[in-house]
Automatic annotation (TrEMBL):
Gene Ontology CC: Golgi membrane; Golgi stack
Disulfide bonds: C184-C195, C266-C269, C317-C421
Record-listed E.C. numbers: 2.4.1.143
Catalysed transformations (reactions): an N(4)-{beta-D-GlcNAc-(1->2)-alpha-D-Man-(1->3)-[alpha-D-Man-(1->6)]-beta-D-Man-(1->4)-beta-D-GlcNAc-(1->4)-beta-D-GlcNAc}-L-asparaginyl-[protein] + UDP-N-acetyl-alpha-D-glucosamine = N(4)-{beta-D-GlcNAc-(1->2)-alpha-D-Man-(1->3)-[beta-D-GlcNAc-(1->2)-alpha-D-Man-(1->6)]-beta-D-Man-(1->4)-beta-D-GlcNAc-(1->4)-beta-D-GlcNAc}-L-asparaginyl-[protein] + UDP + H(+)
Pathway info: Protein modification; protein glycosylation
Annotated Gene3D superfamilies: Spore Coat Polysaccharide Biosynthesis Protein SpsA, Chain A
Record-listed Mn(2+) binding positions: D244, H352
Protein's recorded name: Alpha-1,6-mannosyl-glycoprotein 2-beta-N-acetylglucosaminyltransferase
Length: 444
């Protein structure tokens, strides 16, 4: 009993000392944790700024695809392709003129090929868009053409970032994705011509300048959403336009309104559009918003929709049609299980112009000639936001056009194109997709 009393009294005298030691230890632990977090944050910023591929792989946004025994692998880039790939990591230009992007800005992606006369028109129209200085314009090039590059470098009306597809068939003169030695051409019979390649459903072998259209679009989408430091963590909407789209002055303000209204007015809509799905239509002029099938002029969607599209990579990459939009309408959208509607205004804020298709204009013998000097008559209503937030929504159902069951126009039968396409879906989510000799940790 006496021993118990002495021990109990000793513990009471030592208790304050224990509390002090515990408090000091706790403070030290918190300080160490704080220093560790600060150091990690600094490293993460450095990674995001200088290591394009490795940083994107380390985000929580990583998506693991599982397509059986498919092994993603990108082609070995030639020296010129590597130099272009490095340009993709450069910061945007014109930051000195436009140091800050608006808090609610919607980034704009303009994808281009080799129609400089068209590019001049769309850039001139963008320069007159209200609010354009609040956002960033990302120009995605299908390969490299000097005149196209020079035109974009002259842009001064907003922040501009250029990216170049390093796997464009236009960059490879004697190897895949370009023309490889021994490739079959047109309707060659492999057994008679001693050539190789897989024909499409109509018996035609691959044409690099044709397949580049679909390759570029898919590479661009994967790069913008999952690769670029400027957009890979962006969860909101991104606006996509093409070099043969004339953009009205009210386009940007209208798209901001539509994005804001979509959750309330059309919660089941996947996107918003600047123009009707019928490229010949300029709109109905009604006092109502329109919900219809998703068009290919000025379409805008968010990361949630991109994830649904990305998950359908196999459907996209295996469908025998060289057109990205027909592929989407005929196989990807129908696989979602619900109608894919987009929300737009009753008047177009962008129009398609020109007569030369993307696959035309590059053959010297049969070049498509078009000076791109289209005339656009703008009314006052096209220069200011013209969407009323109180308008109801009219839904167009069972519209004509490509839909599930269409077998495609072909041009996409070679297994190499299908596998390259599917590898693009992996390239920011798996080190296995890196081409031979490329080290993600050193790529800056």
């Amino acid at each position: 009993m006496a021993f118990y009393k002495r021990s109990h009294a000793g513990y009471r005298r030592l208790l304050p000392l224990f509390l002090v030691i515990f408090s000091v230890a706790l403070v030290l632990m918190l300080l160490i944790r704080k220093w560790s977090i600060s150091d990690f944050s600094y490293i993460a910023v450095e990674e995001e700024s200088y290591s394009f591929v490795s940083s994107s792989m380390e985000t929580d946004n990583r998506i693991l695809l599982n397509f059986g025994d498919f092994k993603p692998k990108l082609p070995q880039m030639n020296d010129f392709a590597i130099s272009l790939d490095r340009r993709n990591f450069l910061p945007p230009r014109n930051i000195d003129l436009f140091p800050n992007l608006a808090e609610n800005h919607i980034k704009i992606v303009l994808y281009v090929h080799n129609r400089p006369q068209y590019l001049q028109v769309v850039l001139k129209s963008l320069a007159n868009v209200k609010g354009i200085g609040e956002t960033m314009l990302i120009v995605s090039h299908d390969g490299y053409f000097n005149e196209m590059d020079s035109i974009v470098q002259a842009v001064r009306f907003c922040q501009v970032k250029q990216i170049f597809s390093p796997y464009s068939p236009h960059l490879y003169s004697d190897s895949f994705p370009g023309v490889s030695k021994g490739d079959c051409q047109h309707k060659d019979d492999p057994s008679k011509k001693n050539c190789s390649g897989d024909a499409d459903q109509y018996g035609n072998h691959r044409s690099p300048r044709i397949v580049s259209l679909k390759h570029h679009w898919w590479w661009m989408m994967n790069t913008v959403w999952d690769g670029l430091p400027e957009t890979r963590l962006h969860s909101g909407h991104i606006l996509f336009i093409e070099e043969d789209h004339f953009i009205y002055p009210n386009a940007y303000r209208n798209i901001q309104l539509l994005v804001k209204l979509k959750p309330e007015k059309c919660p089941d809509c996947f996107a918003v559009n600047l123009a009707p799905s019928d490229v010949k239509s300029k709109g109905e002029g009604w006092e109502s918003l329109i919900a219809e099938k998703m068009g290919n002029i000025g379409y805008t969607f968010n990361r949630t929709v991109w994830r649904k599209i990305h998950a359908k990579a196999r459907e996209f990459c295996w469908f025998d049609d060289y057109n990205w939009d027909i592929t989407m309408w005929s196989t990807v959208y129908p696989s979602f299980g619900t109608p894919v509607y987009t929300l737009r205004g009753p008047r177009a804020s962008a129009v398609h112009f020109g007569k030369c298709g993307l696959h035309q204009g590059q053959d010297k013998i049969s070049a498509c000639i078009d000076n791109g000097e289209a005339k656009f008559e703008l009314e006052n209503v096209d220069k200011v936001p013209n969407i009323n937030i109180d308008w109801p929504v009219y839904v167009f159902k069972n519209q004509e056009g490509y839909r599930a069951g269409f077998k495609g126009w072909g041009g996409w039968g070679d297994h190499r194109d299908q596998e390259l396409c599917l590898s693009f879906a992996y390239m920011y989510h798996s080190s296995d997709a890196l081409p031979n000799g490329r080290d993600a940790s050193k790529h800056s």
